[in-house]
Amino acid sequence: MQNTIHPTWYPEAIVTCACTNTFTTGSTQESIQVDICSKCHPFFTGEMRFVDRQGRVDKFMQKMQAAQTSKAEAQVKQSQKKAQKPTGPRKSYQELLREQQTRLKTSKAAAKVA
């Protein structure tokens, strides 16, 4: 084993948790800061707790709220569109063409008279 390539080993490294629990272990660092340990982890304690240092839960809740508001707005727009649709029977393509032809004939006749 070469002496110059290996990091320094600290057999009594102190580990400090966010819940102020401390214990010792072996590590290549003198002191270690952790967020969760066996004293405060939900698996060991049986209580439900969110550990969110970067605001991920808040971001998720904001996205969910925005999605719900946009969904409600879409439903309002859809109901407005339904209200604007004509309620009469639909005309076939042939009927629409006949109406257009009669309009053209009447406009041509009016143009000849004038």
Number of helices: 3
Strands ordered across the widest β-sheet:
2-1-3
Low-confidence stretches: none
Give the number of DSSP strands. Answer: 3
Quaternary class: single chain
Shape: rod-shaped
CATH topology of the domain at 1-43: Rhinovirus 14, subunit 4
Q: Please identify the structural class as seen in this structure.
A: alpha+beta
State the end-to-end distance: 111 Å
The first-level CATH class of the domain at 1-43 is given as: Few Secondary Structures
Secondary-structure element order, N to C = EEEHHH
Percent in helix: 40-55%
Radius of gyration: 37 Å
Largest sheet: 3 strands, mixed
CATH architecture of the domain at 1-43: Irregular
Mean pLDDT: 86
Strand content: 15-25%
What does this structure look like?
The protein has 114 residues and is α+β, with helices and mostly antiparallel strands. It is built from 3 helices and 3 strands. The radius of gyration is 37 Å and the shape is rod-shaped. A hairpin with a 4-residue loop joins β1 and β2 (22-27). Helices cover 47% and strands 16% of the residues. The model has no long low-confidence stretch (mean pLDDT 86). The chain has a domain at 1-43: Rhinovirus 14, subunit 4, CATH 4.10.80.400. It has helices at residues 42-45, 56-84, 93-113; strands spanning 10-17, 22-27, 31-34. It has a 3-stranded mixed sheet with strand order 2-1-3, with no helix packed on it.
